[in-house]
Design a protein that fits this description.
Layout lengths: L1 E10 L2 E11 L4 E5 L6 H8 L5 E8 L2 E2 L7 H4 L2 E4 L11 H10 L5 H10 L1 H5 L10 H13 L5 E5 L7 H16 L3 E5 L3 H7 L2 E6 L2 E7 H6 L1 H8 L2
Parallel strand pairs: 3-8, 3-9, 6-7, 7-8
Antiparallel strand pairs: 1-2, 1-4, 4-5, 9-10
Helix pairs in contact: 3-6, 6-7
Bound molecules: adenosine-5'-diphosphate and magnesium ion.
Length: about 230
């Protein structure tokens, strides 16, 4: 399990997260929800070691991720697709995927796998990333993270601003990762996506964990989640 225990973190001296705890299981999707500014992106950055913790710990299996230097976190099998994608725009699709593969000793099968999951990326392989559509860029960002063959995948609002057909493609890929046994943390605000994908929902409010709901609790009472999310 990916386990956060009483994680506190922030920027400089400004604390954002206050004692956040949850656990994401292999073969499941945990949706991290909450309004804008609630601390969702801060949470995934803290998991990746991109922000120093002010307290608490992050562990994956026996590994204390929060004790590792940031560059070793991906090598522990933690894949990350940041909000806004952060691709190398001047590099080609293939080169962007190589960056993911280098972390994993250039695993050729991983590349085949990604190109099978996203045939669009095969078609656009030699095209520069900044010439792709938003949805294709998101596929590339996900593909880059998947080249690592991650055991844990952190996706920060991967369908933000995409057209419906692309949203479907990204959601299908997310579900496939789950089915392969990956522990997925999906930052997501849309109720329909949460209802369709979440095995658990961790709800943040002002940097604190407001509630953790199971799939069953969401199914029985969708209004409860809507109310908690304030939509
Ligand atoms: N780089 C930063 N420096 C200082 N404060 C930040 C920075 N990034 C985010 N914050 C603040 O941290 C809080 C949580 O932000 P964030 O984690 O991005 O929220 P969310 O992803 O849920 O919308 C907000 O109050 C935001 O203003
Ligand atoms: Mg965010």
């Amino acid at each position: 399990m990916l386990q956060l225990e009483n994680v506190s973190a922030g920027y400089g001296r400004a604390q954002v997260l206050r004692e956040v705890s949850f656990a994401a299981k292999p073969g499941e999707i945990l949706c991290l929800a909450g309004r804008n500014g609630a601390g969702k992106t801060t949470t995934v950055q803290a998991i990746m070691g991109l922000l120093p913790l002010m307290g608490g710990s992050v562990t994956w299996k026996q590994i204390v991720l929060s004790d590792l230097p940031p560059h070793q976190v991906p090598r522990a099998g933690i894949g990350y697709v940041p909000q806004g994608r952060r691709l190398f725009g001047d590099l080609t699709v293939g080169q962007n995927l190589d960056i993911g593969r280098f972390t994993n000793g250039k695993d050729l099968h991983a590349l085949d796998d990604v190109l099978e999951l996203f045939p669009r990326l095969r078609e656009r392989y030699t095209q520069r990333a900044n010439t792709l559509s938003g949805g294709e860029q998101q596929m590339l960002a996900m593909g880059r993270a998947m080249c690592l063959r991650p055991s844990v995948l952190l996706l920060d609002e991967p369908t933000e601003g995409l057209q419906p057909s692309m949203i479907t493609a990204i959601r299908d890929a997310t579900a496939q990762m789950r089915d392969r046994g990956v522990a997925v943390v999906l930052v997501e605000q849309r109720l329909d996506a949460i209802a369709a994908l979440a095995d658990q929902v961790a709800l943040l409010e002002n940097g604190r964990l407001r509630a953790v709901l199971t799939r069953e609790e969401v199914a029985v009472d969708p209004q409860k989640l809507a109310h908690l999310l304030g939509v």
